[in-house]
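Might you be able to consider the sequence and fold that I enclose below?
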Amino acid sequence: MTAMLTAYVLVWPVLVLGILITIARGFAKDVKEARKEGRQVI
């Protein structure tokens, strides 16, 4: 029971990291395209 609870708790940081990486990649892509087109991101 303790091992399952520990695994459950440790999965959340991995999921959050994956989502953060996905968002950061999308933002970096948008910044790259904006610079290429000569416009600001914000």
Remarks:
- The chain has a mean pLDDT of 94.
